[in-house]
Structure formats: C-alpha cells, structure tokens
Automatic annotation (TrEMBL):
One of its GO terms (biological process) is tRNA wobble uridine modification. PANTHER family: ELONGATOR COMPLEX PROTEIN 6 (PTHR16184). CDD domains: Elp6. One of its GO terms (cellular component) is elongator holoenzyme complex. Pathway: tRNA modification; 5-methoxycarbonylmethyl-2-thiouridine-tRNA biosynthesis. This is Elongator complex protein 6. Belongs to the ELP6 family. It comes from Rhynchospora pubera.
Amino acid sequence: MAELCDLLAEAMGHSLPVGKVVLIGDCVETSGAFVLHLLLKRCLSLDSSFVVFVALSHPFSHYDRILRKMGCNLSAQKKNGNLHFLELLDFSARSKENSVDDGFCKLYNEIRKSVEAARSKDTKASCVYIMIDDISLLEIAADGSENDVLNFLHYCSTLTSETDCSLIILNHEDVYSSEDAPRLLAHLQHLSDIEIRAAPLNTGLAADVHGQLTVINKGLLNDDRRSGRRIWNFQFKVKENSVEFFYPGSQH
C-alpha cells in the first residue's frame, strides 16, 4: 500500500505537476472525487502554495467537512490566504444583458487575477493550482454551448504556460450524450498533460478493492530521452478518512 501522491510522483515525474493540465475522469459507478480531495490537500500542504478552487457541484462546507477528516482545515487555509474558493453552485454564464461568452470572460478574469495576485505577493507563491470540481456543469451554465466551454478551458490552460501554474479538472465522462461526448472529451484529452481515470474493476465488485486508477503521463522521457506516453495502473480502497492505494495483485 502507498499514498496516492507517492504513486503519482513516479507516474507524473514530479511530486505534483507544475505548469501542467491534469484531467481526472470518472464515471457513475466509480467516482474520482477522492482524487481531487487528495490533490487539494497535498497542494495546500506545500510551502508557499496557493489554490484557486472553482466549486460548481458542492459548497465550501462540503469540502471543508471532507478535508477536515483528512487533517486539512480549509477555513484556516482561506484565512491564511492560501485558498481562494469560488462557490458557483448557481453559476450561469448568461445574464439578461450579456452573452455566454461575457459570463465566462468574467469568471476567467477572476481566476487570472487571483493567480497573478498570488504570484506578486510579498510572500510569492511558488506553486499555484487552479482546480475545477465538475467541468460538465459548465456546459449547463452555458445553456449547452459547448464551444463557449471549450474556449473557456483553452484560456484557462494558457495560464499554465503564462504563469507556470497548474490546472486540475474533474470531469464526469458518462454524463454526456453519445453525440456530445467524443468532441468534448477529445478536446479535454488534447489539452491535458496527465490523465487520471477512475473506473470499476474489470473483474467486477470486490470487498477489498473499490476500483482502479489509470494514470497516463504524456510528457515523460523514455529510455531514449525522448518525450513519450507512459501508463501506470493502481487499485484503491476508499475509507472514511483516507484512501489506500496499491499495485494490482499486491492487496492481501
């Protein structure tokens, strides 16, 4: 057994990704929210780190309760200026006066200003992370306008290169219709440097294993020192206050 971030350190080539886009994908049978929770805790535990958390699916109280069980006080992190929490449960990109594009521009500008402020503080943040907890809800907020969602994600991804921050996205892959899924998922996968996929076991339900995690790193160097795609597979068991991770076949 091992900590997720220890296993991801090997898979990502870094303890946590810097200047990268990380896509977490899951499905109804196997939620990947626990990965987001663990990465949020790890990001906030780093010295001089700053997180912009865009909450579309759950309020602050939900995350505060979960992270407290994991030993991380989000209220204290907010008070100390390490966390900017954007609670957007009723977010609509369209208003009576403005277009959908205007709504996403305002959201993007708020994220960008938070990132720039963290970079320019006297105690300059060495690591900045943008987290979005449910990208599928953005399409609802955009009245089904997939193009506006894709444009917004593209602008957010440009921050990774412009400000050397990282973008971490949770996407529920099976909530889309069969017609919409290929294009949106393809775009998300194209933007991402690292994919983390939570899925049920191929063998079905098991008492000691709740699912499998696949990590795809598209930028690691291979034996010839050239960039290449590498894949790792882990299994996991979710507990009340933690998650156990292990390589397939190593759980007893």
